[in-house]
Amino acid sequence: MRTTSVAEGPQVDSQTTITTTMKALVYHGPGRRSWEDKPRPRIQEATDAIVEITTSTICGTDLHILKGDVPEVTAGRILGHEGVGSVRETGTGVFGFRPGDRVLISCITSCGKCDHCRKGMYSHCRAGGWVLGHTIDGTQAEFVRIPQADSSLHHLPEDADEDAMVLLSDIFPTAFECGVVNGQVQPGDDVAIVGAGPIGLAAVLTAGFFSPGRIIVVDRDLNRLEVAQSLGATHVVNAAGHPADEILAITGGEGVDVAIEAVGVPESFDLCQAVVAVGGHIANVGVHGRPVSLRLERLWSHNITLTTRLVDTVSTPLLLNMVASRRLDPTKLATHRFRMSEAMKAYDTLADAARERALKVILKKG
Ligand code: ZN
Ligand code: ZN
Known about the structure:
Strand 2 and strand 3 (33-39) form a beta hairpin. This protein is α/β, with parallel strands linked by helices. It has 2 domains: 3-170 and 313-364, Medium-chain alcohol dehydrogenases, catalytic domain (Quinone Oxidoreductase, Chain A, domain 1), CATH 3.90.180; 173-307, Rossmann fold (3-Layer(aba) Sandwich), CATH 3.40.50. It is built from 14 helices and 16 strands. The protein binds zinc ion (2 copies).
């Protein structure tokens, strides 16, 4: 297949064009990972691009994979579904990007043409969805192959801060689309966000776009509750106490208009059901591995709406503009920075997040 190589463009780099191996963070089955040599990816389809990663990050989902919770990830897989980089090579069917372009990689790969994509449901693209670091090699590497490049990459603004941009690959669209948009946060609404991990905290920041009333954040980690307050939470509630009673007391016994579930365990879903007000919304964001009980005997008459969603990343252009116009600063969630070659240490830090006070760890090229 004929490809456009970076050697034809202005940024000739003889070192990288002749090297055939690269370093990457590789999954070797539950509990096992290593930083090792892998073959550099090549164009396989006309719609592919090869991107040199300049900034990446580790997701809570990567930790789930390492625990063996995501069995479709097989040994030998390069992890990572978030990244920013520079296009090095494009297939003949890529028209929107050229070698040398700086890009944001969406965690969701989409063709833009299938029936699900045409409905804006990119997460269920027939030719993509969540594939990076899942069913194909991911972004915690020096280079990555991005299928369906035209609809899966975004151009970076000129003066973009890569540390901010990389948080738009996954966590900000996830918190915004699955939590804030599906929860239909309106001006004056009382909102409870259950879980103050990076997704819950990104929901605090993006709920602010709609000028809600109270923003009540629930977690067991007191450091994270402190961060939530600094980001705009009006109230924080320790999940280890009696969170439902506290939320009802804060809202005069009414409950909240929007309850965003950002943990993914039955207890946090139960809490959302216990505190949702009449006419309210429960927006599930958490990844659930166990069944939950639906309290329909209480909620059947309460006019509530329950939503579930896998992030579609349809809001990425909006979020890029919010960052460019300085209405949103994602870097508030970046607590640690490592070189990519220190990825093993970065994983250790995130695995011990409470003690390390880690939210998002940023990996920089090198
Ligand atoms: Zn993720
Ligand atoms: Zn599609």
